[in-house]
Amino acid sequence: MLTACLAFAAVAALVTITPGLDTMLVLRTTLTSGRRVGYLAALGIAAGCFAWAVAGALGLTALLAASELAFNAVRIAGAGYLFWLGAQALWQTRRRRTAEAAEELPSISGMGALRTGFVTNLLNPKVGVFYMSLLPQFVPDGATMLGTSLIFALIHVAEGLVWCALLVLAAAAARRTLARPSVKRRFQQITGLAFIGFGLRLATDH
Length: 206
Prior knowledge:
Elements: H1 2-17, H2 21-33, H3 35-57, H4 60-66, H5 68-95, H6 110-122, H7 125-138, H8 145-177, H9 181-204
């Protein structure tokens, strides 16, 4: 069992540190709202991943993968949510373009960051398919699928929290350097376009 856990941890670590939506979300949240809110965004991401892992262990993601209608419904909802996040970020920077309003971009609340991290993962069916396809490959003979899958999920979530914590610390340090409103506004524009790009990819990737 220990060998299986170590093998899964190695593969999951590579997946965790691959730049993607979660990385962009944590960096953007920390730069605009501070370290504490960045940690809450990371916690929301971890909660969303664990929810998919539990669903996979219970066999629910197999039903999702088998039903094209259900998969597409979750996929389109997730893409729509990402479009909304991107458009919101771009609209905030547009409203703050004038010199009088350029003092600071609006901060994200702690609950808002937690909710965004959770929902962006929960509405991404590819996370569920990832758990469904990867976890069973590491379950050793004789081990229960449910219990072992949950252990693997906890390993992945723990790795994700550690990685996100490092991202938060790096972004918090950069935040002191990049404190100028114009720089924050530019980063907000970049992340807004990135969210829209991720949404397009999710909407068109079957």
